[in-house]
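Chain A, query sequence.
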Amino acid sequence: MLFEKYDIIVVGAGHAGSEAAAAAANLGSKVLLITMNLQSIAQMSCNPAMGGIAKGQIVREIDALGGYSGIVTDRSMIQFRMLNKSKGPAMWSPRAQSDRSLFSLEWRSMLEQTKNVDFWQDTVSGLIVKDKQIEGVRTAMGMEIYCKAVVLTNGTFLNGLIHIGEKSFGGGRMGDKASKGITEQLVELGFKSSRMKTGTPVRVDGRTINFDLLSEQKGDEDIRGFSFLEKPKIQTQRSCWMAYTSTKVHNTLRKGFHLSPMFAGRIDGVGPRYCPSIEDKIDRFSDKDSHQLFVEPEGWNTIEYYINGFSSSLPDYIQVEALRQIEGFERAKIFRPGYAIEYDYFPPEQLLHTLETKTIQNLYFAGQINGTTGYEEAAAQGLMAGINAHLKLNEKPPLILSRSQAYIGVLIDDLITKGVDEPYRMFTSRAEYRILLRQDNADVRLTPIAYGLGLASAERYQKMMEKQAKVEELISIFKKESLGPELVNPILEQKETPPLLQKQKAASVLLRPQIGIMDLLPLMKKPSNKFLLEDFDYKEILEEVEILIKYEGYIEKEKEIAEKIGRLETVKLRPDFNYDELKSLSYEAREKLNKVKPSTLGQASRISGVSPSDISVLAIFLGR
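Chain A, predicted structure.
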């Protein structure tokens, strides 16, 4: 017999599939990872970068839960930046440029070193389902492989269709075949499917770019990275560059609009609002004479550059003509044109919060199959699907993160409760408790949970506990030690903030926006001076102490609100309840509640179209 019966089969080895396989295997499940091409595990199909606004928080959360994305990013990064440092700490978001090839190689290496993961190169063409329960998969090679649970992470491959101008051909991404059969079978089983689109820009030969005409964008000197377990060993960084389109560029692109599959109506899928194609930007923002482009290196040892912001599905010759009218790209040669890709997805209201489908037991969806966009969002869903598939098979309670616990909780709750009508991308503005969900404290929030599950190692847990103890120790010192005017006033005058008239606690002085923790630490007695050591970990500790002292009032208030709203999550709703029976509910509320079938009163309160008065009606009906 070629195959044993597996606990979990993961279909697709992109970011979602890789995290799902690793999580389930590390928890003890026997996992088979099936992919069309073992040479492209966790491939960065679009831009060669991880993190960014809100996405960086997600990568740190994945790492805190024992996932691999943060470690792989740190090992393959070629540049690091902390975005939004001019704003409050709730907005700080780490981002790294990665070596595209090294990223995929590191992911494969880590998966190969993960006990309980087997690999099979093949295309899954269908599912084996009996009595509304998953039993295995069928492949293009004619294999039937049996298992207890399946995680589908098909990315853009389900009936994928690539568009370049008037040319269209099947594919999951350039160079890879589309996957056929799964959508049709799932629709027969009662699922609803729809279409979305995304796109990617031209790749340019760096030898043909005049970088003297571009603006250089260097990485941060203070390289933080993503993983709480190990730190980046990067010594040098590669620069990114900035370029700009112009009216001339826009006019050239407009010449091809009648050939664009988007404007000609050949694309049915809805594209991403926050990462539109260059032709979409020109059409929607016709008042703008120029758009910013980011010129990003693809790796340490390649001349290939990714032109972020120049995504297009226009004819290839139009793309090149317009590209050569950008300052610095007059002699540009391309490796391949940009293209749009259409693919099937399944509206995520058809899922439980565990990412298990409501229709078929032990079948899980993760990634772009749920209507999301982005490596980070996909990886987070894969991690949670892998965890929950293992927990269910072992008759253990599911892991459902709340909106006040993690961006991952916000992501999944938004998908399940609100659904999507365009590719979903995470932003800090989507999280109502973002001062609690900072990138610096993801380990404190989530590592204890992962350690309790057996997903985080004792080493990771101990490291988090030691960090927390140091943070609490230094906060205690700042709240106890007083600083006199003679000591502090010279610094206050230098910072142009009013002087002290009498002694004040160091924590009180630190509340002033002009004052940072490093202004006060040298003035304080031992043992606080030990925190001046030039140690990477201490930099993070000092930063967290400063945040917790300066924003203490905001943090406590947000915790109170989260606890109050959280009480609604304890009020359970029956999944089979017919809301049409409650005539006191508005018609829209009845329609939306019957569609989503929320599991709690809290989830019901977040459904678009369900008003506070509708929630009151439900609460009264439930005897609350």
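The domain at 6-45+107-198+343-428 is CATH 3.50.50.60 (FAD/NAD(P)-binding domain). Residues 85 and 493 are 25 Å apart (CA to CA).
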